[in-house]
Amino acid sequence: MDYDEHIMIEIFNSFSSNKDSFEPFEKNMVKIFICGPTLYDYTHLGHARIFLTYDLLCRHLHERGYGTDVLVNMTDINQNVFNKAKNESKDYHTVARFYAKGFVEDLDLLNIKSINRLAYVSDYVFYMEDHISQLLEQKVAYYANGNVYLDISKDEKYGILSKQSRNQLQLHRLDIGPNKKSQEDIMLWNCSDDFGFSWKSKFGSGIPWWHIQDTTVALENFGPNYDIHGGARELLYPHHEAHLAQYRLFSTSENPVKIWMHVGLVLSNGEKMSKSLGNVVWSRDLTQKYGQNLLRLYIFSKHYREDISFDEKQIVEGKQLLEKIYLACTKTSEKTDSVLSKLVDEFFIALDDDLNSPKALGVFENICSKVIVGSNIGYDDFQRICQVLGIIL
Ligand SMILES: [Zn+2]
Questions:
Q1: Is residue 88 part of a domain?
Q2: Distance in Å, CA 241 to ligand 1 centroid
Q3: Cα separation, 280 vs 28, whole angstroms
Q4: In angstroms, what is the span from residue 231 Cα to ligand 1's centroid?
Q5: What tens digit of pLDDT does each residue of 288-342 get?
Q6: Residue 192 within any structural domain of the chain
Q7: How close is the Cα of 349 to the center of ligand 1, in Å?
Q8: Ligand 1 center to residue 261 CA distance, Å?
Q9: pTM to 2 decimals?
């Protein structure tokens, strides 16, 4: 079917604070950058939720006739990676490669097939150096005690993504260092040699800082613009604000990223999952225990923008729906009757509306109930729904 004429997918855009209808820069090809893992541990459920959300989005985009090009950066230049390497007397890259392999295994266990570009941040240091040099030449960056900072006072639009005024921005104490011109300036290069690992550059040895890492990976892969930037909501400030400021400086587009799409947290015992709090739930443990089908139904039962309070009982509760799906699958017909045909449309229309997966799952449950008592759904229609949800029958 040709959807071009009448289908409008809407996604909530943190930039506009609205559900924006969505047209990619390139016809029918959606370029997505997802802030990826820091390579010093396995994937926890909060991370898994992020990649499952964009996998659902991509599967739905495919259903609607779009292609997708999905880039995920893998952060290996990071204090946590370096610490792990030091503790294990290894090179940082050995540690990073080990957890990159773990990340790919975790994606496979979750049946996430939509990511086609994985980038080690450390492969791009040469380009980061080049970008920072350009910013210094343009006089929008400056040296302070060997570090290099982005001069936020040169960017009138800074704060536009996180909706903060200059005064609000100045209240954050970040990237602290001597001789920094203004509190809100963003670090580009950190010349400290306390990390245990460093890179040589024309700015001296040190490490490229967090935000310019992602900006460079995105620029080198996607060029001057791309359609969707994804990640956890907590990355909105300072990370995504800084990334947008930097990207605008290199891009020829006025607004180089169309949609900023943020995913809510998975809370465990009321708090964000973190190893130091001891409340981490590993994605691989859950997929091995419950299977990826149940885990998907659990994650998609909440809208992606809401926070989830992790409750293992709720995963188990999904078994009822999954069994209905399996049973309905054995009762598919050659053709879909008109009542069910409407419901099949409703399923996909729910996802057009800012990926409303709880509503879509409700419609699918209704479809399955009707099929079980004798209504007709064609095998192809049933498969289309399962394909978008990533449910393996
Ligand atoms: Zn990022």
A1: yes
A2: 10
A3: 38
A4: 7
A5: 999 999 999 999 999 999 999 999 999 999 999 999 999 999 999 999 999 999 9
A6: no
A7: 30
A8: 13
A9: 0.96
Q: How far is the CA of 213 from the centre of ligand 1 (A)?
A: 8
User: Measured between alpha carbons, how far is 41 from 314 in angstroms, rounded to an integer?
Assistant: 26
49 near 266, Cβ under 8 Å?
A: yes
CA of 111 to the centre of ligand 1 (A): 23
Query: Locate tokens 């509503």: which residue?
Result: 359
Task: Kindly tell me the burial class for residue 214, based on how many C-beta atoms sit within 10 Å of its own C-beta (0-12, 13-18, 19 or more).
Answer: buried
Task: Identify whether 144 is part of a domain.
Answer: no
- Cβ(388)–Cβ(60) under 8 Å? yes
- If you measure from the C-alpha of residue 72 to the centroid of ligand 1, how many angstroms do you get, rounded to a whole number? 9
Q: Structurally, how many domains does the chain consist of?
A: 2
Terminal CA-to-CA distance of the chain, rounded, Å?
24
Residue with tokens 């190893």: 275
Distance (angstroms) between ligand 1 centre and the Cα of 33 equals 9
**Cα of 337 from ligand 1 centre, angstroms:** 46
pLDDT tens readout for residues 53-112: 999 999 999 999 999 999 999 999 999 999 999 999 999 999 999 999 999 999 999 999
Q: How far is the CA of 239 from the centre of ligand 1 (A)?
A: 7
SS3 for 286?
Answer: helix
> In which domain, by residue range, is 68 found?
10-120+210-268
Distance 211 CA to ligand 1 centre (A): 7
State the distance from the centre of ligand 1 to the C-alpha of 10, rounded, in angstroms.
23
Same domain for 110 and 214, yes or no, is yes
Give the tokens for residue 351.
């996802």
